[in-house]
Amino acid sequence: MGNSQTALQYVQCGNADIDAIPRPIVVVGLNQVTSRLERPEHQHRKSELIYTVRGVLTCEIEGSLWTVPPQSAVWIPFGTPHKCQAFGKTEYYVLFFDPDVSSSLPQTSCTMSVSSLLREALMRVAQLPALYPLNGPEARLLPVILDELSAARAEDHRLPLPTDPSLRRLLDMMMSAPEDKATVAEWATRCALSERTLSRKIRQETGMSLWRWRRQLHVTLAVQRMASGDSIQAVAMDLGYESASSFIAMFKKTVGKPPGRYLAERTSGADVPHELIATKRSSTL
Which DSSP state fits 181? Predict the structure, then answer.
């Protein structure tokens, strides 16, 4: 019976952990049913690709917070510590690659778009037995996945996180009160820094000005909230914007398109046969 089990069934039955399945690529499909789910920091012996079908994931990886909206994926090289959160009803696939077959793929973490061909290929692989024949027709899908990943368009969904203790306090304050409209001078006072020192440190650690970094933070929070079902109006108010139109203008300036269009493009065509997605209250991220 073990030979017919999918990778997720194989792991759930205690045959092996995901890193120990002796196949070059392993795929599992998951449906997160709680309103929010967090996986503490961990790492894998295999490289990992997390592809979001519906909802939003965030992954904290090597000092950056990566947002993974629908129809995007985040690449995590083997041995890289990371922790993940899922927001709202989230459906996603997790692919694990042996280091030997992923050598041509990025050596650092990144986010990328997922083509329709890649999506169909990984859906098919998710149905295969965990121990699929290495020389059978099933294995012919693997070069397709690798080729599509190599050609995937990079997407910039990264929010750099500062490491300086005073800047981490600033981050915590901004995360807990994103609607706060304090000036740079006021933020500096709260961090026990001069205005010039705060501006210099935030640019050194993130490559951004404080206001650009705050705008990127707002986009990250907005995508999480909208994916959980909140309206644009509600998100705008909670982030401190005087009107939905001012929030939409900020989002468009940062992302390149208004939030309604951004979400519509990413949720269209996102339907996946439910039998391919296993319902989980814990994560395999």
Answer: -
* pLDDT tens per residue across span 70-85: 889 999 999 999 999 8
Q: What is the pLDDT of residues 139-177, one digit of tens each?
A: 888 899 999 999 998 888 899 999 999 999 998 999 899
The secondary structure element, H or E, covering residue 117 is helix 116-127
* Domains of the chain and CATH, by start: 2-157+272-280 (2.60.120.10), 162-267 (1.10.10.60)
HEC string of 36-77? Answer: EEEEEEECCCCEEEEEEEEEEEEEEECCEEEEECCCEEEEEC
Global pTM value: 0.85
DSSP state of 153: P
Q: How far apart are CA 11 and CA 66, in angstroms?
A: 27
